[in-house]
Amino acid sequence: MYAFTLEQPKTLADAKRLAGGGAQALAGGQTLIASLKQRLAQPGALVDLGGVAELRGIRREGNSLVIGAMTRHEEVANSADVKSSIPALAALAGGIGDRQVRAMGTMGGSVANNDPAACYPSAVLALGATIVTDKREIKADDFFQGMYSTALDSGELITAIRFPIPKKAAYAKFRQPASRFALVGVFVALTDGGARVAITGAGNGVFRHAGLEAALGKSFTPDAVQGVAVDASQLNSDLHASAEYRAQLIRVQTQRAVAAANG
Question: Which residues of 238-261 are buried (b: 16+ CB within 10 A; e: fewer)?
């Protein structure tokens, strides 16, 4: 670690001013603190968003669920509103990391970081959510732009994420046992606009799969996935799993997710 200035605002207005002035936003710190320790990130100032009450909370708005950016994973997992409106999202949150990670990690921090194996981006993308910032609203399809890359401008803060409530949804995750990140995770949703499938852990960032969506749009059943081709050449291959293995996992996890959504 090295010397830096730590700011702890209590209002969103102060947080916006500090972030706009060049300070690095600190949400749950699950990635940033480790990066600081390894000197992979060296900001001169941090703005801790933990004390900004405006950035926390869960509420139902019509046919949408709005979750504040600083809402902790365990709060999402245990929320009665989330469990009744989008139970798949509560289950996803309850399966992130371990108890310590769920107690500190935040939805907004995970989505802004866009780790290619993180769970939340798959839910945001599959559900067709809207990312609300201090400046604008960004559709999920426009937000995620590759490994650790998003549409956020420098100094722009996520304030909340708005999730349309689907007809059906589920998340199936094949864990990397050491990190508990997704080796492959698949979130499926049946929405008013059709079936949406978002995959995490398999590529350089979360992505949708048109072939799986087309098949499930015709028949939202596990059997519909069986003959869908998954191109392994577009997937990661590393010491944990080959691209071909990940391609097979995508099919299997999609089938499991659809079965769970229909259950």
Answer: eebbebebbbebbbbbbbbbbebb
